[in-house]
Write a structure and sequence with these properties.
The protein is of the alpha+beta class. Helices cover 15% and strands 35% of the residues.
Length: 182
Amino acid sequence: MKKIRLILLLAAGAVNIAAGQDNEAGSASQSTRLVMSNAIDITFNAGGTSQSEVSLTFNNVNDYANGVESSLVEMKIRSNKKFDVFAKTSASRFAYSGPESKDPKMNVNKLKIKVVSNNTGGSVPSAVNNKYSNMSKSNKKFINDGTPGGDNIFAVQYKADPGFEFPAGTYSVEVIYTATQQ
């Protein structure tokens, strides 16, 4: 009888140990934080009809009389806050390269620009909304209150209208676009 009691006690203990192992669990927790800063980026849209250099070529008398328009130039803005977009030229006059020994002084107001499409969620000021406006060395606003996002695209078009008063050659100026968060 002692043997049977000992076997029963051992069996009952094994059942308690097995049951206790099923209920045991370990856990750990970890706090995860995202530390984010304000971010904004403006680039020429590689998926669009854009290019980082725009050439307006005057081939004949009609081009001089009527001016020459560029193809559309698309830009993409990625921002985590509302934003505005501005543009200006790097100088008040075009740099000249050509056969003339005397530097012709062409003012940048001979270059005009307009916004032709806007998918930024913001508004376009009436001065540049599908209307050409003269470029200058001062900032000109193109987009007001663009919405945060990663795929905000707008397109501009240039028109050069220097008339007949300037000699042949290459006239160049940088157009600088700036996107600023609000």
